[in-house]
Each structure stands twice: as structure tokens, then as C-alpha cells.
Amino acid sequence: MQSKLPNVGTTIFTVMSKMAQDYGAINLSQGFPDFDCPPRLRELVAAHLNDRKNQYPPMAGIPSLRQQIALKVRDYYGYDADPETEVTVTSGATEALFDAVQAVVGAGDEVIVFDPAYDSYEPAILLAGGKTIHVPLSLPDYAMDWDRLEQAINSKTRLIIINSPHNPCGSVLSRDDFDRLAALIRDHDILVLSDEVYEHMVYDGEKHESILAHSELREKSFAVFSFGKTYHATGWKLAYCVAPESLTTEFRKVHQFVTFTTSSFVQYAIADFMAECPEHTLELPAFYQEKRNTFCELITPSRFTFTPSNGTYFQLVDYSEISDRNDIEFANYLTQEKGVAAIPLAPFYAEPPATKIIRFCFCKDDSTLEKAAEILCKL
Ligand code: PMP
Ligand code: GLN
Q1: Which residue among 43, 332, 340, 343 is buried most deeply as judged by most CB within 10 Å?
Q2: Does pTM surpass 0.90?
Q3: Is the CB–ligand 1 distance for residue 93 below 6 Å?
């Protein structure tokens, strides 16, 4: 049988987490916290499960959760989304990204992604019959390369996928970036898919710029967010997409036949928690900034070099003073022989550059970060 995705293997996150487990390494690879979600949230999940919320919720998500999402979007990004027609709850951001791509990309359409690009984008594009156009972010800051983006746009361009805060680089887009993007696509029939799953992890007094705050761009955009990141519960796979009614209509046509709907009792619990504990999201940037600072301080004596991450819970480090290996070999060596797992960047590129950079995840208990740093400082 001819594979529909001949160049797709097992995602690097699964590969490295399994390697960490097999070799007993401290896992700073795949992005997930090793600490608990808010205890009150767990209580609410248990309460709704015990209340026998066992059956199919509405296809687009339970109304109270969509209402809470709309209130949140209004408070944070100043946009009054209609929970009935513009908000859809999905089984993880992965599903939302997939649905959006399937909804608008057809055979021969071109979709622009920025390398290093999160690994779920391209398979979704290929399954829709589209062609991925890879525009590299410019080094060393992983900033948008506006000239290359402009050159990549043509009459076949259907969608541009952006990601801020950016996984794996930690870079964030500014209001000015959004204005430039808006100007570039103004006279084209191009949509935007904005992956904002790390919206609450922006540091050093900066604030997250959402595409929903940009009145011109939001009219042509899907914005995707994940409760997994925000509530330290990546395993619950709950997320949402906010898009104008015309796009949401198409989005739901796909969503209803990919998953139809999403786990009931978790939806009820998060709706209650959002209403009860709005401080959780307000406190997140400081919480994660502290973790970033802790990790960066701990590895400062090492031979890794780095610029502290501006966003996400990832830190890129350059290991060129430590090894000549390429990043996949170095991540394997670090995991298998030194006991700390990391993510190489090559899998996120069509054409990996010769940089010697890997990604560590710092959403871990301080004791985990300390143990890992002890090893990293000896390299
Ligand atoms: N986009 C990016 C950039 C991510 O890092 C992740 C995370 N894992 C996702 C999407 C998928 O999120 P979810 O776990 O909610 O499917
Ligand atoms: N987004 C997470 C990361 O970057 C992993 C998600 C996954 O394992 N699919 O590590």
C-alpha cells in the first residue's frame, strides 16, 4: 500500500519521551508538567464525573464553557466573540489545528509555515492535499523574515500558520508583526491559522499579542488555544478555536466528523474553574517566568549558551562548546549516556540549519530542574 504520509515517522515527542523512560533519564524533552494541576480543578472534575456527566455534550462544546471562553477572550484580547457561532471546543489544540486545515485547504493549495514549525502542521496540510511552503525564521532571534514571506506568497497561497509564543524557539510576535502580516495579505485571499497555545507564558513584562486583538486579521483567522497548557493538564486534551462565523461553520463541519465532541465532565469542570478562579491565568506568566529563571540560573555555570526564553515553557540552548555532534545525535547521547532528555530541532525543519541547538522543557518541579542541571553543568 502506498503511504499517504511517506515521510512521516513517529513524532519526536514520543520518540524522546520513550527514550527517556527506557534509559531512566530526567525528561526535559516532551512538553508536560511533572507537577499537579490546581487541586480545586481536580475536585471539580471528580464532582462532575460523580454527577454522572457521562453522555455526549453538544457538538461545539457545552454552552457554559463557550460562554466562559468568550468572557476570557473579551477580558484578555478585547474581542466580543459570540459563543454560539464563533467558539468551538476541541479535543486538544492538535484537533483544532487539524480541523482548521482540513476546513480550508484543498488540493494544490499552498500553506506557509515558519521553520522550525510544530510537527503537526505539515501532516495536516498533506492530508488535505495541500503543499507546504517552508519559510525559515531568521537566526539568531527566530524572528519573522518578512522578505522571504513576501516572496513565498502567490495566488495559490491559501493559509499561513503562525505560532506565538513559539514552540520550540520561545520567540513572541509583536503588534508590529501583526500589522506587517495584515499589510502583506491585505490584497490576497489568504487565511491565517494562529496557534496560541502558550498565550499565558510570555515573560519580562511583555503581554501576549493575540490575533483576536487585531481587528483586521481576526476577520480572516482561526485562533487556537489549549487548556492543557493553561491548567497543567496536557493529558485531558481540551482546547478551543475562535474564528468568525463563516470560518467556524466550515471548521465545525470537520470537527463534527473528526471527534464530534469532547469529554463531557472535563468541560463542565473547566467552565466552573474559569468562573471560580480567574486568578489562575493571571498568575501563570509570573509562575512560569520564575521556572524559566530558576532553570536559566541553574545552567548558567554550564558550557551551554543561551538567551532566556521570551515565552512558552521551553528554553533553547546552544551546545557547540560541548560537542560537534548534530542535534539529533546530541539529544540521543544526552538522554542515553548522560540521563537528561531534550528535543532536537532538526525534526521541525524542511532543511535543518547547521546550528547546534536543542530544546529543554522547564515546566518541572524545581527538584527535577536541579537534578537535571547538576548533570548538565558537568558536561
Ligand atoms: N501547538 C503547539 C505549538 C504545541 O506546542 C502543542 C503542544 N503540545 C499543540 C499545538 C497541541 O496542543 P494539545 O496538547 O492541546 O493538542
Ligand atoms: N507540544 C508538546 C511539546 O512540544 C508535545 C505534544 C505532543 O507530545 N504531541 O513538547
Answers
A1: 343
A2: yes
A3: yes
